Amino acid sequence: MLKLVVLISGGGSNLRSLLEASEDAEFPARVVAIGADRDADGLAHAEEFGIPSFVVPYTSYPDRESWGDALLEQIRLWEPDLVILSGLMRLLPERVVEALSPQLINTHPAYLPEFPGAHGVRDALAAGVTETGASVIVVDTGVDSGPIISRQRVAILPNDTESTLHDRIKLVERELLVQAVLDIANGTIDLKELAS
Questions:
Q1: Which residue stretches of 1-115 are H helix?
Q2: How far apart are alpha carbons 171 and 143 in whole angstroms?
Q3: Annotated catalytic sites, by residue?
Q4: At the top level of CATH, which class does the domain 2-189 belong to?
Q5: How far apart are alpha carbons 84 and 97 in whole angstroms?
Q6: Which residues are annotated as a binding site?
Q7: Where are the domains of the chain?
Q8: Left, alpha or beta for 117 (phi > 0: left; psi -120 to 50: alpha)?
Q9: What digits encode the pLDDT tens for the residues 12-65?
Q10: pLDDT band at 196, cuts 50/70/90?
């Protein structure tokens, strides 16, 4: 059974999909803890599903490195097999990535390597392209530049706004994430091999 720690900043819709998937006794992974960098709405899922949670507020630390060290300390308490960034809106310090990688994955609302960064959906709309996508990647020390685990195209409709497009991308992201966790747990995907 793969032990997961999931890190969030917002509502945690991808997290919820994982929690729902893991309610199936056959699903080979369990979320053992949920962490956040602020008092995130998604922590309500932890309460609802009876999962322990922790908050390491970014604003309580003098810099990103000391915040990262405190976050890493919390993560390590749970001895996870896999750490998932699920809408964590902060770049992890390099030494945190290096300590956890390649057992550190992230979802991104674009068909990487297209439109990396915090505004993937907005950037795709601004570029006037007809399709974008969703990706699951191994986190490295760059910005959305790690090895791609899976990705899928999502069409951009003529009347799409950032919100409507993002909502459709999230549906695909959730499916990709649950499948990626399943494949990692079953050994179909070898993160060490992928990252080498």
A1: 13-21, 43-49, 64-77, 94-100
A2: 23
A3: 108
A4: alpha beta
A5: 12
A6: 12-14, 64, 89-92, 106
A7: 2-189
A8: left
A9: 999 999 999 999 999 999 999 999 999 999 999 999 999 999 999 999 999 999
A10: confident
